[in-house]
């Protein structure tokens, strides 16, 4: 590691120790080497012994920067894995990260837009509406139309902090890849590289604007999800302008219930939105923590999700999407044999894996969770068990699926909060079955024909010329093939003659040597040796001609 990376590692260690995070570790992890290492850093004492443990963890994540804040955001949705006091504190990381100065925000916006704020906007509020790990949001109005908008601006000097953390993660990933047994299966370097591309994409708000426009187009007219409109003419790399929306935070269960929201339908539509993005569009919002999700005040009996902050999106290729869909359906149908076979076919486990053993291991993990409401199922624990199973069978980590796994955890966490009785299996299975019917069978063939029809129509006038050219090339290739075959036969015949003459020469050589030992046949021996020379010369000439 470089000196800069060591410096960042020391800073991380110092923050964790000054917040007393080491004191929260279970006693079984406080071995004598760990206690000795802690005592050797005697100048880094716990600075907040009076604070509760959840507050100390939240403050540590805030001080460590955006990468750790995002980790805390994900953990906050997993209340089945965390004690309530820690989960409540980490939930504050979703949209209540300490803000930076509104005056600095104004300066950055004006620098990006190249003009004073008053030129384009009215009623700019320097008090942020929300503050997150990478950016914060201010309200204003468009001067030309009076439309309410929000302006998102990147935090100042955040890029160097993220770069230092990413470099440290890459250095640690290289160490793991080099020294940890079986690290090839975990693919730490590829996973960190995938995360680096994701987090760096969040620093470019033009990319977020493009993502939001795509998601909005995908759900135009939908009753399940609404994505706010982006005001593209005022967007820059460090500034994003979009319409202001009013909704109830999805984490505010009391407000949702007071508004008369159909919580069961809301939870089911969350599952629908997730699977639609993944399998219909292959383009999904991959940062669906509660701070980025709202529910419309209008029509509570027909609730509408509102998604913001599209800086992180995930995509899947056709092969991964197909394998995932088949895996989900096989899970829902309890066809564990098919699950095992799919993992082998996709290359996620080695080709020599014993399918019978893999099937039994998957059955052991998954069979107990079926036919239970979400309130009785912990996917966090299920995933841990599946990872242990995967490790036993040398399953390779798929970096392109990391975002999908994280998003699935978010969706489950939201579903658990909204409607714990939600039957995830029965909600998702019909959708996946319908999607699979769309991908195979007569309807899929007809859709493919319709999709390719414009291309075929464009190429149809060229068809006679293409047919003629193909026939002409075929005839030319046939003549070329006949010539090659004739050359091959001639070559083979000459090689056969050469081998024959060389063999005859060898026989004459042996005969000549033998006859020279017999005094009465010396003349015949000399003749044989001379004939040997002639045969070898002719054979050599034949080989050279070939």
From TrEMBL:
<keyword id="KW-0831">Ubiquinone biosynthesis</keyword>
<dbReference type="Pfam" id="PF03109">
    <property type="entry name" value="ABC1"/>
</dbReference>
<comment type="function">
    <text>Is probably a protein kinase regulator of UbiI activity which is involved in aerobic coenzyme Q (ubiquinone) biosynthesis.</text>
</comment>
<keyword id="KW-0830">Ubiquinone</keyword>
<keyword id="KW-0547">Nucleotide-binding</keyword>
<keyword id="KW-0997">Cell inner membrane</keyword>
<keyword id="KW-1003">Cell membrane</keyword>
<dbReference type="GO" id="GO:0005886">
    <property type="term" value="C:plasma membrane"/>
</dbReference>
<comment type="pathway">
    <text>Cofactor biosynthesis; ubiquinone biosynthesis [regulation].</text>
</comment>
<keyword id="KW-0472">Membrane</keyword>
<feature type="active site" description="Proton acceptor">
    <location>
        <position position="287"/>
    </location>
</feature>
<dbReference type="GO" id="GO:0005524">
    <property type="term" value="F:ATP binding"/>
</dbReference>
<dbReference type="InterPro" id="IPR050154">
    <property type="entry name" value="UbiB_kinase"/>
</dbReference>
<dbReference type="InterPro" id="IPR010232">
    <property type="entry name" value="UbiB"/>
</dbReference>
<dbReference type="InterPro" id="IPR004147">
    <property type="entry name" value="ABC1_dom"/>
</dbReference>
<feature type="transmembrane region" description="Helical">
    <location>
        <begin position="498"/>
        <end position="517"/>
    </location>
</feature>
<feature type="binding site">
    <location>
        <position position="152"/>
    </location>
    <ligand>
        <name>ATP</name>
    </ligand>
</feature>
<dbReference type="InterPro" id="IPR045308">
    <property type="entry name" value="UbiB_bact"/>
</dbReference>
<comment type="similarity">
    <text>Belongs to the ABC1 family. UbiB subfamily.</text>
</comment>
<dbReference type="InterPro" id="IPR011009">
    <property type="entry name" value="Kinase-like_dom_sf"/>
</dbReference>
<feature type="binding site">
    <location>
        <begin position="129"/>
        <end position="137"/>
    </location>
    <ligand>
        <name>ATP</name>
    </ligand>
</feature>
<comment type="similarity">
    <text>Belongs to the protein kinase superfamily. ADCK protein kinase family.</text>
</comment>
<keyword id="KW-0067">ATP-binding</keyword>
<dbReference type="GO" id="GO:0010795">
    <property type="term" value="P:regulation of ubiquinone biosynthetic process"/>
</dbReference>
<feature type="domain" description="ABC1 atypical kinase-like">
    <location>
        <begin position="93"/>
        <end position="343"/>
    </location>
</feature>
<keyword id="KW-0418">Kinase</keyword>
<keyword id="KW-0812">Transmembrane</keyword>
<protein>
    <recommendedName>
        <fullName>Probable protein kinase UbiB</fullName>
        <ecNumber>2.7.-.-</ecNumber>
    </recommendedName>
</protein>
<keyword id="KW-1133">Transmembrane helix</keyword>
<feature type="transmembrane region" description="Helical">
    <location>
        <begin position="523"/>
        <end position="541"/>
    </location>
</feature>
<keyword id="KW-0808">Transferase</keyword>
<dbReference type="GO" id="GO:0006744">
    <property type="term" value="P:ubiquinone biosynthetic process"/>
</dbReference>
<dbReference type="GO" id="GO:0004672">
    <property type="term" value="F:protein kinase activity"/>
</dbReference>
